[in-house]
Amino acid sequence: MRKAWYAVCPSSEVAADPKKVTVNGRDYVLYRDKTGRIVACNGYCPHRGCDLSMGSIHEGELVCPFHGWHFEGTGSCTHIPANKLGTPIPPSYRLNTYPVTELAELVWLYTHPNLDAPAPTSFATFADLLHDDWQYVSFEQTWQAHFTRAVESVLDVSHLPFVHPETTGTDVDPTVIGPEYTVKGKRIVIYPTPFAPSHPMEPVHPTQDAHLRTEIELLFPNQWIIRTPFGNDGIMCTFLTFTPVHDDVTSIFGIAMRNFDLDAPWMDAFHIDHTLRVMAQDQRIVESLRPRIAPFQLQDERHVPSDVPAIRFRVMLRNALKEEQGGF
Ligand code: FES
Ligand SMILES: [Fe+2]
Fold first, then answer.
1. What residues does each domain of the chain span?
2. Could you tell me if the CB of 71 is within 6 A of ligand 1?
3. Tens digits of per-residue pLDDT, 170-218?
4. Cα 117 vs. chain centroid, distance in angstroms?
5. Which residue, 30, 66, 153, 232, has fewest beta-carbon neighbours within 10 Å?
6. 127-323 adopts what CATH topology?
7. Which residues of 205-242 are buried (b: 16+ CB within 10 A; e: fewer)?
8. Predicted confidence (pLDDT) per residue in 266-307, tens digit
9. Cβ distance 111 to 213 under 8 Å?
10. Which ligand ends up closest to the CA of 165?
11. Could you say which of 1.20.1740.10, 3.40.50.1820, 3.50.50.60, 2.102.10.10 is the CATH number of the domain covering 5-110?
């Protein structure tokens, strides 16, 4: 999907020099203008195609390293050193720019350009990421897997006892109840098959209120969170967002967060260590899946009821792509 917001790097990585990022096989350059605001533009110069991430920033403008053309934050070329001073610069001598924003210490890029097309829907994320008084710890992963396979893996509850026997799958009954899930607009919410009460990540019993149960939510197409209640209004969440870099590379930006034991660094270490161990178990399997891209034709794979949330994602993606292609 081109009309979507993708996390592309931590905010701290957009500093003094232009920064290259890649989404869906296209390169973009990010830099900060005079005001500190991030600008996102095409990765290559319209003159002779030089890689603009090799350039520099001069008074808030992007300068190409090949012949020194300057581009301002709107993408317009403002200076061509080889031309006599005062020579008009045609409006088409420009870079496309893209909507970009910073949230949760990440840079988010909307990969459809700022043309005359209607403005994109503004960036939306989970309220869980927006608390001033929670503890947040970030991490990053790169999987050699297609975006579709990576996202589907976090909607798949039946793999837990097989892929994660010593982590999230401990004591999980392989028979999936339901699966219990809801779909509302762009959100798929899943209540995974509960762990045994002895499991360290699942201290509540399935018969308790829904709000006390572990909940997985996907904000289509690429933001995912798992919320695990810890009693006394304590909640521990793991957020992941998936960015398709190339057909066989997906970047994952994660945030481990909680609203209790804020000054306990050992909790940070526990949560991150646990999450990375779980993700390494998933990565190994997901990278092995063929075909690399999840097939849109449902008859190309064999399905069971526990696959329904992942199939809902697949159908949503297919519809979104159809709409996007129709809209170009
Ligand atoms: S290639 Fe960029 S100024 Fe010539
Ligand atoms: Fe998993």
1. 5-110, 127-323
2. no
3. 777 888 888 889 999 999 999 886 655 445 554 444 455 656 788 999 9
4. 24
5. 232
6. Naphthalene 1,2-dioxygenase Alpha Subunit; Chain A, domain 1 (3.90.380)
7. ebeeeeeebbbbbbbbbbbbbbbbbbeeeebbbbbbbb
8. 999 999 999 999 999 999 999 999 999 999 999 999 999 999
9. no
10. 2
11. 2.102.10.10
Considering only CA atoms, which residue is closest to atom 3 of ligand 1?
67
Place of tokens 């830099």: 31
63, 69, 80, 93: residue to mutate for ligand 1 pocket, most atoms within 8 A of CB: 69
- Give the model confidence (pLDDT) of 111-155 as tens digits: 999 876 666 778 999 999 999 999 999 999 999 999 999 999 999
Give the contacts of 112 (CB within 8 A, at least 6 positions apart). 2, 3, 98, 120
Whose atoms come closest to the Cα of 238: which ligand? 2
Q: How many helices (H) and strands (E) does the chain have?
A: 4, 18
Residues with C-beta atoms within 5 A of ion ligand 2: 282
* 198 alpha carbon – ligand 2 mean position (Å): 20
Q: Rounded to the nearest whole angstrom, what is the distance from the C-alpha of residue 96 to the centroid of ligand 1?
A: 15
